[in-house]
Fold this sequence. Notes:
The structure holds three protein chains of three kinds.
Chain A (H helix, E strand, L loop, with lengths): L2 H19 L13 E4 L7 E7 L10 E7 L7 E7 L9 H4 L8 E7 L13 E8 L4 E3 L4 E3 L11 H23 L9 H16 L3 E4 L8 H20 L3 E5 L2 H17 L11 E3 L4 H15 L3 E5 L5 H11 L3 E6 L5 H7 L2 E4 L1 H11 L2 H29 L4 H5 L4
Parallel strand pairs in A: 9-10, 9-12, 10-11, 12-13, 13-14
Antiparallel strand pairs in A: 1-2, 2-5, 3-4, 3-6, 6-7, 6-8
Helix pairs in contact in A: 3-11, 4-5, 5-6, 5-10, 7-8, 10-11
Chain B lengths: L1 H8 L3 H17 L10 H11 L6 E7 L5 H17 L3 E6 L5 H14 L8 E6 L4 H9 L2 H4 L26 E6 L3 H13 L3 E5 L1 H12 L6 E3 H11 L5 H29 L2 H4 L5
Helix pairs in contact in B: 2-11, 4-5, 4-10, 6-8, 10-11
Chain C lengths: L2 H17 L7 H36 L7 H9 L12 H32 L12 H19 L8 H42 L8 H29 L1
Amino acid sequence: MSYKGLIINFLFLLIACSTVLAQETPALVAPQEFTAFDTPNDSGTSISLTWKTSKENDREGVFYVISAATKTDGAWVELGRSLATLGLKTDAPQYFGLSDENKSWHFFEVNCPIKEVTDCFTSTVYFKLAVTDGANSIEFPTIASAVPQGNWFDASKAYVLIFVIMFSFLIMFFISIARKNPNLFIRHIPGLDAIEETIGRATEMGKPILYVNGLLGMDSLSTIAATSILGKVARKVANYDSQIQVPCYDPIVMSVCQEVVKEAYVEAGRPDAFKEDNIFFISNDQFAYAAAVEGMMMRHKPAANLYMGYYFAEALLLAETGAAIGAMQIAGTDSITQLPFFITTCDYTLMGEELYAASAYLSREPLQLGSLKGQDISKGFIIVMLILGTALTTGGIAFLLNLFKTF
Amino acid sequence: MSSFIQKFTGMDRRIIYVLISLAVIIPLLLPLNLPVGVTSEVKAVYDTIDNLPERSVLFLAMDFDPASRPELYPMAEAILHHAFRKNLRVIGMTFWVTGTGLGEQVMVDVAKEYGKEYGKDYLYLGWKAGDFALVIGMGEKGFAATYPQDHYGRDTANMPVLDNVKTLKDIGYLVELAAGSTIGTWYYYGKQKYKFKMGGGCTGVMAASWYNLMKIDWINGFLGGLRGAAEYEMLINRKAVAVRGMDPQSVAHMLIITLIVFSNIVYFATGANKKIGAGK
Amino acid sequence: MDTVLLGGWIAAGLTLFMYSFLYKDNPFFRFGEHLYLGISVGYGVVRVIFSNFINDLYAPLVYDHDFILIIPALLGLSLYTRYFQKLAWISRVTFAFIVGLGAGLNIPRIIDGGFFKQLEGIIAPVLSETWNFGFANFNSALIIIGVCSVLVYFLFSVEHKGAVNVISRVGIYFVMIAFGASFGYTVMGRISLLIGRSYDLIEFSKPEYYYASIVLLVLIILVLAFYEMYIKKQDKQQVTQ
């Protein structure tokens, strides 16, 4: 073959290859099924826009352009540009669920007020959608419109309401049972036996008992449990003719504790022995309170320290000081971060729910007993759901996992 | 041998206090320059801030007081250095009344180093009572409506730092530095509804439980204790207080581990475990 | 007077006062304790008055005529009626408001974000799609076993016997391991706090601060030594009497 022939063949080869290799850029198509609607389950501050995805448009370098106006013939303001490869309905499962169909739809949320357009407030807003790759632009032929409206009920959180109703009925059912039968079974809690032992020890040594209620207010479950246990402890202290000191972090807790201890002394037939000054407020600053209680321990050297309630970093400070003075210590807290310190420094520790159970165990109040029973049933239900959910998810069935999905 | 064990078990705890003090003070005076690795949790916070577009808003909730200053102040410092280097706008505030001065001090000191202008590049809202009500206010009504005046009593309504940023929905990232349980407040009343990105920093006491928060997507990363602050300082190439603190941290830990191991050997060797009954 | 220098001496002094507790309870610690108590309360009161009372109540009421604020103001003031027995019932209105608001705001959020989110995080496959058991699957299995066994431990309606006892023992081991991790982190945290204070004490021992830490440490040791000798002398005299 001659040189000319070779060159011509080479050129043909080059053109053929470039034709094969060069990918034809598909032309843009007008977006399909463009809709605007009031975003569900919100306070009336947003409008949702959806339109169908397309293979021709959804590629790098292509944008969807959204514009808004308050009138169809009004001044249109560009709100934003959404990259064509992003912004799908799957990004908002709280509105559209977890269906696979959501992958075929684009989604764009417009928040009110819309700058330079309108404050919204139940007025109709009009939207235009166009697609552009920088060089070309095609508009969806129809204008979509919507009126943002607030919703009274967030339907996407309906599962919370169902759960609350079911759980409440369970608790109320067991409270009614506990009212008829206050001797419902609660398993033995070892730490409670030690309380009587500590009070006896304190009486023998002629030293006071220090009862610390924790650092939260009366709205906290642990403080409620602590004051309930305080009542039982105070009754025993009154019977033994010992002394109890209750330094308080919260003034309202102090008033409640004074009432509880006074009532305990009256029930024990020793109203004259009650000293209101033994239950006092110190400070509602964490470390100032801790420093004051530590100082008290060093000076008065109580025979027994009871820490019942919720604690923060001062837990170890208190328990260590108590250990240093040789006091017998019993703690009960639902503060997970402080439990390790109480376990290592105290003689007995009631962990988490054991504190609430101890309160129910001692008082036998139907409200506390019924709540405990209802919670136990719920725990059993959760254990079954978790095991079942794990088994199903392992087998590729995501039903239970989706049931617990939160958005 | 038995007299040694007796002396050891009856040892005055003040000797241990002295040993720990020396283990901390000596490495501070004579640095060992031990290496500091970086964990994925801290890197996640760093990467999020690093990838924020310029002039987006970083919201720094400095919910700590002087008691937690040694752990959380270096975190705030490191994050602010990073934020100002990236030319981000920073809004700071606190839920702890005794931490108001600390938040102000760290923002002003770091901003000065970068020549940042108050009201334009950063804003300090200070302390205000309200907790969750403030979070809901910032999410619904906006920053200016919830805090009409900043910490210095100036009107926030027209401050340039709040341009195009009205509510919590508009911020780029929120970092919660917590000495207490305020992470719950920010999640329940903030992120759960307004869907902003959130990261955090906490004291060493709470760090173990914060891994769970990452698993359930409350936060995308966090700095745990002084160690977390040291890792962040390594990432921003600014070795300061936190990195210096890693030498005494390591030496003290080695001392504590040695004492624990030795004590347990003595405990089991003396048969003490059999003598002490149930109850603990 | 250089306030930074004065601040340095006060900070070093008070730090050493509080650390003197490690030796034993003494007047320096007690002074620091009472001072901290007073200052924290005083600072809190001043901040609440200026940041809340004046900025959020007085100024809007008096200057902006925002009279709706009278309602929350009255609700707040009614809490003080608890100190007067005949009027104490009025405070129940405010408590009802607080409890109702708290329950209404908290319960749905905690159930959604705290409870269901936890469950969502726990349910994960223990075998991969190709039926392999990798590290991630091992993690998932460990979590599910730990959660279920701990929940069994905290069942109070069932006696811990037989299989329930075995499962609850597994649960308590998980709990103790978790506590060990938490304890370790907390030890780290406490050492960090000590490092922070030591760092400041070292700063305050520099010539710029006129060796504040060293001078104060020596003074405190000397005073405590004399105090100890004085106490021992007093005790001896009491014994001889």
